[in-house]
Amino acid sequence: MKLNLSILTGVASVAAIMSNVFADTAVTDPVGYVTVQVRAPGTLSFVAPSLVNKTEFVGVVASHGASTITVSGTPFTANAFDANPDPAVGVQYYVEITNGATATGLWTNILSNINNQITTEDDLSASIVDTTTTIKIRKHVTIANMFGATNTAGLFGSDQVSTADEIKILDTQTKNVKSVFYYDDGSYQQWVDADFIEVPNLAIQPGQGLYIDRKAPGALSFVNVGHVKTGPTMMSFDPGISIVGVPHAVGANFVLNNTNLANILPTPLGPQSGRVVGSDQIATADVLKVAQLDGSLKECFYYDDGSYTAWVDADFVEIGATEQLKEGTSFVFVRQAVGGTFTWTSPLEVIAP
Predict the structure, then answer these.
(1) φ/ψ (deg, to 5) at 139
(2) Range of the domain at 320
(3) pTM > 0.90
(4) Which of 15, 17, 320, 335 has the fewest CB atoms lying closer than 10 Å?
(5) Looking at 72, 107, 139, which one is the last position of a domain?
């Protein structure tokens, strides 16, 4: 997989990158592309949008309430960030805190806005200091963003989900799986779910991984274009199975030892934010299942016998310095119930060679 951090000719001009209709100051992150691999039938492909959409606004919080954030001036177009009442579209924008000792990378969805204030889905007030806290607003990556509004990714389309390539999204809270495919009956084409509801604008939220069940013969690859998110990303996952999207665009730098995932013993529980449950046996530890080049999943866990700790595979071979979480991919995360809800602040992106 490859990341090109140069400006893409024909994709984004300098003027387009620097323009920002909502912000009072032009803001941009590095722009590039990631090549996403989809494997041949018989092996699931774990993928994710490692790149993000452009920054719509960046600024300092002037004041806040339990579910509101107000900024100076009138930089927003009223209702520009409103959640769509159509459940197939839903929330489209999110706000992220970009500074603070413990809050950097914390984000929540935006439900509505007026010209200088947004209403948020979650209460971020404990992490906001008026006139000091900085925020960014972005649009979520959508199915159409990642795979192309007209399926430029090249997944196999059909008029039935049973014969089409399926994009599957596992809800980290309910554990329900949503299937999406490219409907094509020869005359009409659109991204739909298994109930044939149109979902091109379905959001793929930060940290949300996907897996693809390929039906057509052979493998394929496609290019995902976007912005590199250089700051940390905070993500939460409930006990059980989650599919976690790799938030880094340069996976070669992102080996297990660099993820900042560390250990908590099952007892006593202690602080859990950003910690995995370690053990001297894989059966009682949190498990990461990382896709390999041959399509297999390597099981990894944080070995801890009370005196020695290391990331190891199922055969107890140390892999922390070599096992990569690759750009454009996702991994399976199995959280032990004893660990409770898992909150991981992924480190900021390292771009320089």
Answers:
(1) -90, 140
(2) 229-346
(3) no
(4) 15
(5) 139
